[in-house]
Structure formats: C-alpha cells, structure tokens
Amino acid sequence: MTIKVGDKLPESKFRVMTAEGPQVKTTDDIFKGKKVALFAVPGAYTGTCHKMHMPSIFLNAYALKGKGVDSIAVVSVNDAFVMNAWKRDTDQRDEAVFLADGNADFAKAIGMELDASGNGLGIRSKRYSMLVEDGVVKIFNLEPNPGKVEVSGGDTLLSQL
Questions:
Q1: Cα Rg for the chain, rounded, in angstroms?
Q2: 86: number of CA atoms within 13 Å, CB side?
Q3: Whether residue 36 has pLDDT greater than 90
Q4: Which of 17, 29, 32, 153 could form a disulfide with 84 if both were Cys (CB 3.0 to 4.6 A apart)?
C-alpha cells in the first residue's frame, strides 16, 4: 500500500525521547484530533536532510502554526537517541516532535520505504511532507529525488495551506 490523500494513517509505533528515556508513542498519540505537519527524511544528519530539509521546516514553523497547524513532526528511520541529538542540534525553539522509526515499520506500513543499502544506509524512508488532520492525509508531497528538497520542504507545505 502506498499512502495517498484521503487515507487514514495505519496504526504504528514510534519512539520519542523523554526525560525518562525513550517512550513509545502511537499514531493516535501524535495525530488524533490534531492538524500535524509531518516531514519525513531519509536520515538524521545526512547532508540534504540536515542542511536543506530541516532549515526549510524551522524557517517556516511559526507560519505553519499560524495557518492552523497544531504540531510539527519529523520522522526518520533512526533510533530515538540519534533523533534526540538531532532535535537538540536543529530545533532551537522546540517546535517539533522528532519521531524515531528505527525499524522502518511506519515507512513500510505506508509504502514509503527506501532501499538505500547500495549506499550503506539500509532501509530508510523516502523524503516527503504531509498535512495530516485527525489521522487522515490531507496533503501529500513526495520528493521524486531523495537527494533534493524541491517539493517536500516547509515552504511548499506552507504555500499549500
């Protein structure tokens, strides 16, 4: 199954770092009853993700929230410890929740897994952005080239609201 506009996100589990250590958050915990801007990247700290995609999100965070977005989420196939360090290094104003999809379970459940094993990265997530309202995909921007941020950045999603 490849996710599309109008689909409800499947039940999945993420890891989120808290003061007590990694905690499980379900799809419902993140999306139920909320309007969420979801950004997926192939890997924390990787060149395009770190230098292009993340700045596009945080430069537009206030404006996204000004358009009715309740929360911003970033998901990647990394563990909760890496995602926590990446949040520390990129999210200076604590504007997003960083979701660890360590085994690519969410990416696979929505048909967004990316086989990057040729580059030594294993299974990752494709690069995309979504607007999700109460668990239902309302806007979906799949990046055709995982090494670029042309349609999946914060500026594009903002222009669609």
A1: 14
A2: 29
A3: yes
A4: 17
Phi first, then psi, for residue 107 (nearest 5°) are -55, -45
Residue 110's CB is within 10 A of a number of other CB atoms, namely 23
Cα four-point dihedral sign 9, 76, 104, 156: positive
Kindly name the residue from 9, 49, 73, 149 that is annotated as catalytic: 49
pLDDT at residue 71 tops 80: yes
Place 13 in a pLDDT band, splitting at 50, 70 and 90. very high
Under CATH, to which class is 9-132+145-160 assigned? alpha beta
Quick one: average pLDDT of 40-46?
93
CA proximity to 61, closest of 21, 93, 88: 93
Pairing of strands 113-115, 123-125: antiparallel
- Which are the contacts of 18, defined by CB distance < 8 A and separation ≥ 6? none
The model's pLDDT over 95-143, given as tens digits with 9 standing for 90+, comes to: 999 999 999 999 999 999 999 888 878 899 999 999 999 999 999 999 9
What are the residue ranges spanned by the domains of the chain? 9-132+145-160
- Cβ burial of 62 (10 Å; 0-12, 13-18, 19+) is exposed
- Residue 49 contacts residue 41 (beta carbons within 8 Å): yes
CA distance 135 to 9: 6
